[in-house]
Design brief:
The protein is about 65% helix and about 5% strand. The chain is built from 30 helices and 3 strands. The chain has a 3-stranded antiparallel beta sheet with strand order 1-2-3. It starts with 10 loop residues before the first strand and ends with a helix.
């Protein structure tokens, strides 16, 4: 019972032979200290009564943890029905849960596989195995386990059946899965994995980070065995909202509670405040997962941090190393970092004809990958193609951008709000490239609702400037330079846009200086230029910025 009621990693059932009779025990293990917090035992149990006795001691234990015994009795089903009738499978599963909580994913995977070899219909073990595969960016394997668990839904409690259905929806229609996660969270408000998953889906698929925060606050219960993970995710959401003090507190608490990750998000919260020394120290203390396809995601952060300090040489070096690693991980992951490189080339003075030639090859290649791809990979591949369309239009080739968008098929197939957002941004950029800034603004302005992608404001700034509305363009430049948490943390499918966003947050200071100067606001222009040069002390050495800086040089000297 305890295994399916929200504290799976904490409660370990054991059976011992005491003088020819069995002793059944259920104990709650503190995941940080591994010490026993609560324990309930039943002695003199016959071998045929072991599983019913486990049910009984688990009910007692849940009562000790504060759950109403009447509710326990009403919701519980026999352990053998909704978990496994085999004690060895149950033991392997319990050990897998303990290994998972200690971030020993290799051992956890072995234990769950052992449980499934003993009992192939042990649906809970398949759910947890899918979590491991998902964390390793092996979506195909994860979905295979989820489908198998759904096929054995008679071995799941109603709550766990809802959970696995929502999990399956994240692969079939990610955006639509949000409704399923919200349903699970409303029906079972004290089910912590459901609360975490709901918050994560809101952020990952819709960038609705403010809506996600209450779910994580609700999960910060002393009874939540995965509270450290909840706090870490809460730190991400606070940082995206610009609530850096709350973010630091959440990250720090998570670390104290035993969470040990690569620290990319924790470091990003410091970098967003330009505390790069602290950010670098946090990255140095990080712990990799051992799964290359997962660990590479966090490579975006040090690249973004290098750009954020104006060190483009270091950023390009790190990006080249990441691209070399990505090449061995398949075309989807390789495409992610090739697209990241193209986004930086859009900013660093690379000639537009060179950009367009490279984009043609990229769009052609990713289009072929998309055509042959597994459906579960298509959301990210479409995101890559749409971003390339935006970059093509930005470089002035509206025709190439339209060709890229034509590779997507029906727009209704995106099934993800952030992809719909990027698609509209690309369409608006095509209009801007076609000398229709008014049409671009008509597309972009309705997107601004608090969850819009950061790039939406980049496109708005450019469109307003193109429409000769310098005041509105200046407002967007101020927004970009002041929402650095959004630049680092927003959901844009595995942080593909993070370095581009962060670069734009800095370049927005230069745009502020230029726009203020054009509008006759000399003091504002000088202050913005000084802020930009503080952010990028090597800016004068970047040849592609020299023309823009020369135009503003007189401002600095006159001050």
């Amino acid at each position: 019972v305890a295994l399916r009621e929200g504290a799976r990693a904490l409660i370990l059932p054991t059976v011992a032979d005491v003088g020819g009779r069995m002793r059944v025990t259920a104990e709650v293990i503190d995941p940080n200290t591994q010490a026993t917090v609560y324990s309930v035992s039943a002695d003199g149990v016959g071998k045929q009564s072991v599983l019913p006795s486990l049910d009984n001691v688990s009910k007692q234990l849940r009562g000790k943890l504060g759950e109403a015994l009447a509710m326990v009795s009403r919701q519980s089903q026999p352990l053998a029905k909704v978990a496994t009738p085999n004690l060895n499978a149950l033991k392997a599963y319990s050990l897998g849960e303990r290994a998972y909580d200690k971030a020993d994913l290799k051992s956890a995977e072995e234990y769950f596989n052992t449980a499934l070899r003993i009992d192939p219909h042990f649906a809970l073990a398949r759910i947890d195995l899918s979590r491991i595969f998902s964390g390793q960016d092996q979506s195909g394997k994860a979905l295979q386990q989820i489908r198998a668990a759904q096929a054995d839904r008679s071995r799941l409690s109603p709550r766990d059946a809802l959970y696995v259905d929502a999990l399956a929806a994240t692969y079939a229609a990610p955006g639509k899965s949000i409704a399923k996660w919200k349903l699970l969270a409303s029906v079972y408000p004290d089910y912590f994995p459901g609360l975490n998953a709901c918050a994560w889906a809101l952020k990952e698929y819709a960038n609705r980070y403010e809506d996600a925060i209450p779910y994580l606050k609700q999960a910060l219960s002393e009874k939540n065995p995965h509270r450290a993970v909840s706090n870490y995710l809460l730190g991400e959401l606070y940082a995206e909202a610009g609530e850096y003090q709350d973010a630091t507190q959440a990250f720090s608490t998570s670390a104290q509670e035993g969470a040990h990750f690569q620290n990319a998000y924790y470091a990003s919260a410091e970098a967003a405040q330009r505390k790069f020394k602290d950010a670098t120290a946090l990255l140095a203390k990080g712990k990799t997962s051992g799964a290359d396809s997962f660990d590479i995601i966090d490579s975006a952060t040090p690249i973004a941090m290098a750009v954020d300090q104006g060190d483009w040489q270091q950023a390009n070096k790190l990006l080249a190393e990441t691209q070399a690693q990505a090449g061995a991980l398949g075309p989807r992951i390789a495409g992610r970092y090739a697209g990241m490189a193209l986004s930086l080339r859009a900013l660093d003075g690379t000639p537009k004809n060179t950009q367009i030639a490279t984009l043609k090859n990229y769009i052609r290649g990713q289009g072929k990958v998309l055509e042959k791809s597994d459906p579960i990979d298509q959301s990210e591949l479409k995101f890559q193609v749409v971003f390339a369309a935006y970059l093509a239009a930005r470089a002035g080739d509206a025709a190439l951008a339209k060709q890229a968008l034509a590779l997507l098929g029906p727009a209704s197939n995106t099934n993800m709000p952030i992809l719909d957002n990027l698609l509209d941004v690309a369409r608006a950029e095509i209009d801007r490239a076609s000398n229709k800034p008014g049409n671009a603004l008509a597309i972009l302005k309705p997107l601004v609702n608090g969850s819009e992608l950061y790039i939406t404001h980049v496109a708005l700034m450019d469109a307003y400037d193109e429409a000769h509305d310098q005041a509105a363009a200046l407002t967007e430049a101020h927004w970009l330079s002041s929402h650095r948490g959004r630049a680092y943390f927003e959901s844009n499918l595995q942080l593909m846009l993070e370095p581009f966003n962060v670069a734009e947050s800095d370049l927005a200071l230069l745009r502020t200086a230029e726009l203020s100067h054009a509008m006759g606001n000399k003091t504002d222009a000088r202050n913005a230029l000084a802020a930009f040069l503080d952010a990028w002390p090597q800016a004068t050495e970047l040849t592609w910025l020299s023309p823009r800086l020369r135009l503003l040089k007189a401002l600095k000297e006159s001050h």
